[in-house]
Amino acid sequence: MMEGTRQYQLEVKISPDKLEAGIILRAEETELEHILITETDVYKALQQHRVSYGIRKDAVSNLCMMPQKFLNVLLNVASGEPPVNGVDGSIEYPYLASVQEEDGPKEMEDGRVDFYNLTSIPNVAKGQLLARKKPATAGKPGTSVTGEPIAPKAGKEPVLKPGKNVVQNQERTMIYAAIDGQVSFTDRDKMNVFPIFEVNGDVDFGVGNIDFVGTVVIRGNVLNGFRVKASGDIRVLGSVEGAELEAQGSIEIKSGIVAQDKGSIKAGHNVQTSFIQNANVTAGNQVIVSQSIMFSTVRAGKQILCNGAKGIIIGGVLQAGEKIAARVYGNTSATPTILEVGVKPELRQELASIQKDLQNVYENLRKTDQGLGVINQILQVSGELPADKRLMQVKLANTRLVLEKEVKNLESRKKEVEAELVGEVPAAIEVYTCMYPGIKMTFGKLVHFIKHEYARTRFMVLNGEITGATLM
């Protein structure tokens, strides 16, 4: 543009997200006092770049009145309207309102808590509504400075995962109990209702080992050498010694685990207890401990939480996919303690296995289709098939149906695993009070040894290194 012989240029810049537009005045400083910029010039420059929405008239006026102030400076002259992203959906559990009132130990007259004589177990009745899906919202579109709509990011839809002894409505938005029993979440967060088997005292020689297709409630202790297995949950109102407990759902132990390096505790969902000592504990989701974890091997698919009033971890090996959190780690004696977070090797191995299985199934499908193709050619040429070829056609057709079902199941599980891996949060180790020397941290392949005390710190991986930041 020119004013007489004076030259200047209005350079329009649009942000990558198209939500901001700016103008840079390009000119020689010696020419500025002779330059006259009109609003028409500015709007014409914006129009050439299709900027039409959210134009700030005050900014345009300021540029025209005081061009010397904006030489080689990016002046914001238009702002679009950002989209409002959708809200993720959620799952509500109406049955909890009724069971929470009944659940829990009662306080006796002397102030002690009676864990052994719970008057009720949180049951649900046949036909009771257990879960309700609250759908995600789509969000609200925005508008770019060029007047084009900007699509919002839709909220993530929740997934109801019905398990055993439950039914869904036709729209697949609600889950109901199909029998009387107790709700149990098993591996992959499937919701089930299982019947209940109760032991009114200890699991000892008078009771023997237990293997029950449902939920097991033990009102006493589980002694050394005994085994309890359940397809639902296991609830122990006393303590567990060196025994073997395995539940597809969750395991709750009121008075703690003293295993003396014997037996094991394994749950498909959560393990919750007051303390763990010299034990081997594995949970598909969370391990939640109110007091202490000492000299034990503890593994959790997602989190190990030991952040009660004491919340101390000393010795042993702890592995979690997402987070380990405690008040105190180690002691003044620098007892060796190993903390590992950030990798879900079992999921990655499963994904690799699924992909390999899918390749094999697709190859078998190809061969099956090839065989059916040959038989169809024979049928077209001769008009009928010999008995052996008819038998082969039936076998191949049945094989194809089986393979198609297998592909459907593998693809479904592949999506679940991929979604879980994509949804991984940054791994962390959180210290709420103090971490003493002697701790070995492992984040994937990165290793860090603690050589001095830390207070209120979150350890994470940042720029390829294990870094500590103060917890607020």
Structure commentary:
InterPro entries: FapA, FapA_b_solenoid, FapA_N. Residues 135-161 are annotated as: Disordered. The structure is a single chain. This protein is an alpha/beta fold. Among the domains are: 2-79, no CATH class; 90-138 and 152-188, no CATH class; 347-413. The protein is built from 5 helices and 40 strands. Strands 18, 20, 22, 24, 25, 27, 29, 31, 32, 34, 36, 39 and 40 form a 13-stranded mixed β-sheet that branches. A 10-stranded mixed β-sheet has the order 19-21-23-26-28-30-33-35-37-38, with no helix packed on it. A hairpin with a 2-residue loop joins strand 1 and strand 2 (6-7). Helix 4 packs antiparallel against helix 5 (387-422). Residues 100-107 and 111-120 have low confidence and may be disordered.
Identify the quaternary structure here. Answer: single chain
Report the mean per-residue pLDDT as an integer: 88
Beta-strand content: 35-45%
Cα-to-Cα separation, first versus last residue: 55 Å
Shape: extended
How many helices? The count is 5
For the largest beta-sheet, the strand count, sense and barrel status come to: 13 strands, mixed
Structural class: alpha/beta
Proportion of residues in helical segments: 10-25%
Pick out the low-confidence regions. 100-107, 111-120
The Cα radius of gyration reads 33 Å
Region (Disordered): 135-161
Protein name: DUF342 domain-containing protein
Pfam family, one: FapA
Domain Flagellar Assembly Protein A N-terminal region: 11-187
Question: In brief, what are we looking at here?
Answer:
The chain is an alpha/beta fold. It has 5 helices and 40 strands. Residues 135-161 are annotated as: Disordered.
